Structure formats: structure tokens, C-alpha cells
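Researcher: Good morning. I'm working through a list of sequences from a screen, and I'd like to move beyond sequence-only analysis. For each chain I'm collecting a predicted structure so we can compare shapes side by side. This is the next one on the list. No need for commentary yet; just the structure.
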Amino acid sequence: MTKGVIQKKEFKTFSMDLAGRTLTVEIGRVAAQANGAAFMHYGDTVVLSTATASEKPRDGIDFFPLSVEYEEKMYAVGKIPGGFNKREGKASENAILTSRVIDRPMRPLFPKDYRNDVTLNNLVMCVDQDCSPELTAMLGSAIATAISDIPFDGPCAMTQMGLVGGELVYNPTAAQKAASDLALTVASTREKVIMIEAGANEVPEDKMIEAIFAAHEMNQKIISFIDTIVAECGKPKHSYTSCAVPEELMDAIKEIVPPQAMEEAVFTDEKQVREENISQIKDMLAEKFADNEEWLALLDDAVYQYQKKTVRKMILKDHKRPDGREINEIRPLSAEIDILPRTHGSGMFTRGQTQICTVTTLAPLSDAQRLDGLDEAETAKRYMHHYNFPSYSVGETKPSRGPGRREIGHGALAERALIPVLPSVEEFPYAIRTVSETFESNGSTSQASICASTLSLMSAGVPIKKQVAGISCGLVTGDTDDDYLVLTDIQGLEDFFGDMDFKVAGTHDGITAIQMDIKIHGLTRQIIEEAIARAKEAREFIINEVLTPVIAQPRPEVGPYAPKIVQIQIDPSKIGDVVGQKGKVINQIIEETNVKIDIEDDGSVSICGVSRPDIDKAVEIIEMIVNEFEEGRIYQGKVVSIKDFGAFIEFAPGKDGMVHISKLTNHRVNKVEDVLHLGDVVRAKCMGKDKMGRVSFSIKDAQD
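Model: Good morning. C-alpha cells for this chain:
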């Protein structure tokens, strides 16, 4: 006889009101073997967030191996995955972007010398469209890590902000998101802002700053809530093996390569020259330390740290940048369009050693990207921006494995920046794809891709409302909050060794996108305000002095190689006549005119083709199908059938009329074949309806 013990599992529950909805966290209910686990409920949204770490550091690496996963399960919204394989496949673009948003604020809060593998996993199990699963996962990761035994200088919290009717909204619902001019996510520690991600409809700088710090205040309430959870459920943090570079190694390097020599090595505006200088220093040190295997293993990291301290000291104390620029100076700029003769549009933007070429492709709306995800409100994407970063752009060689998370993130950022200025579907009934190819990279390629895309869209004849430009500002900080320096247009070295990459894109009138990454424990309001103001000055300079002289307005029409699209409206009840049985009629029109036709349920018809005469012919055929024959009007058609009493003429697929033998010519005709043959194209005049209600035609009256 089977025996067992039935035991009720004990767990702890914590709740708070968050923007008018209840956030509930269950600790100890599930996933007990993870280092930390939080079963999150926000409204009816349910996410399981876990944090796990390896027992030992990973050998042979000089970085913190953090992995963040956001798993979307289609059962969360009551769907079975589409396609042949009815199982979730690779992560969606939204899942990748959400993982990045969780990673960016949390990574700086782990110890810098920590090399244990850490995985933050977020399993989306149920979705309430008014309670963001992305936000729930962000909070869940922060809570799971805070209560775990993994070293972590948290907690941190995240809040989403909307702007509806000029009023700020915390954690907006689905309806509020649809009406919002702002999609902002802000992460904070107890004292400072640690991450900003935003898309906006030209929101002014002062309103953006107000929204950022409204979110920061909300984050403090969430952190207080997390503190209560940690106080009851938190584990002691475990000890770990430090992978910091030994001080004696750093001292030995400085004896061989004094600070002045390192300054001379990095002080150049040529990335290749600087890399060669550092390579020579490494070779010299490797020769000196040939007998010390332990130091040789740490040499790359040690030289990196030495470069970092040198560059930071030069910038912060001496106000000297590696390439000799002023603190607020942008690298040399250039722009051009139409470098590819047969694409629909192309633009190239160069900033120092960063160079991007963006190519625009136009297509009918049926080519828009279909989305199969957890967001039921968004099922298709009309504008697509893709970003590529090949190894040759940084002088390296490695095989292409498709876009990684960084490429997807940069593409999404540029897409977000440009969407507010795109024309509506009614104004411009096209699907639009822009592809940014990185030719050369030395810092802030994502913002260069925004500038290049503006050029490319305008050259393609896309009537964008305004020009958009982007710039990235950097930061070097000292020992106090007041000891810092904001840098305009950071290059790669300043990004690697600095504390911040603050990307801001927008028009003359406001911000359209922000992405902020930092490597320190947060920014003060003073730093954020200065960075946003500096970015505004820079983007206005780029628009006025670089983009506008090349192309001031979008071209008035699309180019000769781009498809032309004409939209007409028909009676929805006539859609079946245009389509025909099994698509016979519409396929015949497409074959005859070499166009593409898309019909919506409301009767809107888009005819797309490269040749304007072909489009006009297709429009004429469709209008003939859906409209009644007009008495007295002359039509052109093809003879498709000959009878003893006359001939049948097809004026449009599925729509024909009869010409009686007496109406063929002005003289007597004995046989129809004496005058007409199958396939003849003739003109015939509509004579109206006969006594039996049939529409008749006359060829002889069309010749008058």
C-alpha cells in the first residue's frame, strides 16, 4: 500500500498598491532550489523571476558573465504558437529588448571583480494587458536577486511612465499606452537614477526630465517595499573569489610603462594607431613577465585598467580628450545621399571614425511585419529598422552569425526614434524598411544610424514630418557627486572607460528616443539635466549644419525604381467580384497589369506597381468591375466569344457585354466572323438596357 505525507507548503506573501493595481510577491512558494525566486503577480499578470549563480568563477574571462532571459509563453494569453512547430522558438524581438532593459540597470550593481556565472530568468505565465509583464519581470529580477545570497548592491526598482493629454501616468494601462506621447522606463537605486529608456512623440526636454524624476520618486516607494521583503526573506550574501588585478602587478607595469608613456599611447584621434600603441605595450610587458604565468594571465585586464585610469584622469583632471577635442565638441561630420543608384533611397552619415549607410525599401502594406507575441494590441509593424554590425567595421575578422542582442537593440532604438516623424498610412500607404549597415565603428553607431536613416528616408521620397538626429554623451566621475565631466559625442575609448553612454535622439522640437547605460551606481539630477541639454545642442547642430545642407525636404515623390501605390475605395459588397472564385479575377488582373493588389475588409484597395500606366490600367479594370456600365460611355474590351447572333466582349475579368450582329458595322453583316475574331480588342459604346434588362453594346456607334 502506497504511503505518503500530505503537507501544505508554507510561503510568505507581500503586497503593495502600485499605480492603482495590486502588486503581490510570493516568496518560497515555487522554485526553491534557485538562489532567489519571486512569484510575481501584478493584477492578473504572473511572472516567475529567479536568480541563480554558479559556485565558482568562470575561468579565463575578464568580465562579469551575467545572462538575463525573458521567456514569453503563448499560453499566457491563451494562444498556441503559430507556424508548423507548435512550440515557442527563439526569443522574440520584444523578449530580447526586455532582457536588455533588465540587464542594463542591474549589471553595475554586482561587484566589479565578480566572475561567477549569474542567470536572471523571467518566465511570463499569465498576462493582463493592463499590467505590463515587462515591468513585472523587471521588478521580479530585482527582488529575486536582492533576497538571494548573490552579492548585489541593491535593491533597485523600475517604473514605466506615460504622457496622456499632457498628464503623466504611472505604469499606464493598454488603453493609456495607445494614447500616450511617451513610453518611458526608469530604474533607480535608493539615491540615484541608473537607467532610462524612452520613446516619445517630440516630448520637450523639461517635460522629459519631470517624467524621469516622477518615476524616480515612485521607485523609492517600491524600494521600501522590497526592503520589507529582504528583511524577512533575504539570505546572507555568499563570499566569492575576487578576480581583481593584484596591486603588485599594477605597480610593476607602471615601473615599466610610466603614466606619461601611457598618456602618449592613448592620446590620438586614430583608433588604429592607439590600438597599435597598446599592442606594443602588451608585447613589451609580456616579454618582461615571461616567467610569471599568473601575471601573464592577468595582463590584458591589467593593461585595460591602466588605460582606463589614464584616460579618466586625462579627461576629469586635465580636461584633455584622447583625440584632442573640446569637451563639447563633435567629431568631424559629413553626409551624403543616393550613393546606391537603384535602391529606393540611401543615405550615409559619417562622424569621425563612425560611418553608417542606411538603405530604404518601400513596399505595399501587405509586406508589413506580422507579430505573434503577448501584446494583443500590436499584431503588425509597418516600419522596420534593422541594424547590422559586421566585424570589418572594427577591423576584426569573425563569421557572421546573424544579428545579436546588441544589433537588435540598436535597430529598435533607431526605429523608436524615427516613428514619431513618419507619415500616416493614409498619407503614405507603404510598408517601410530601413537597414543601417555599419561601415566603420568608433562609438555611437546607433545614433549615426538615426542620422543616416533620416537622409535615406528623405531621399526615398518618404514625407517625414521633420529631420531626426541623435548624439551620445558620456561621463567621467570622481570621488564626489559634484566631481564629474559630461562629454559630447563619445568615441569608443571614452565609452569603454567612461561611466555613461547617454543616447538622445530627437527633432528641433523635442525628444523622440533615449537610451541610457551606466557603469556606476546612478546619476544625479544635475548630471541628467546637463546631458540632455548637451544632447539638444548637438543634435540641433547636426540637423542645421549637416543634414539640411544635403537634403532640406523629403523628395516630392518616390524614385523611379520604387513601387508606386494608388489607393481607391470600393463597396465592400463588391470585394467578391474583384477577387472572383478562388481568386481567379484578381489573379488575372495582376497577370495582365504586373501590379500587386491588396484589399481590406472595409473596401480599401491598394494597387502597387513600378509602372504608372500599369497601375492606371489596374485601377480602370477594378472600377469597371465594381461599377455599373454607364449608358453612352465608350469602353474597350476583348472579344471572348462569337455566336451567330453577335459577339461577347470582356471589358474586365468576369465582366462582359454583348454586341448584336446588327451593331457591328454600318453595313449588313452576314457572319460575325467576317468582322470579328476571338482575341480582337475593340471599342464599344454602352447602349443601355434592353427590354429584358440586359445591357447591350454597339461597336458601330463607338466609331462615330
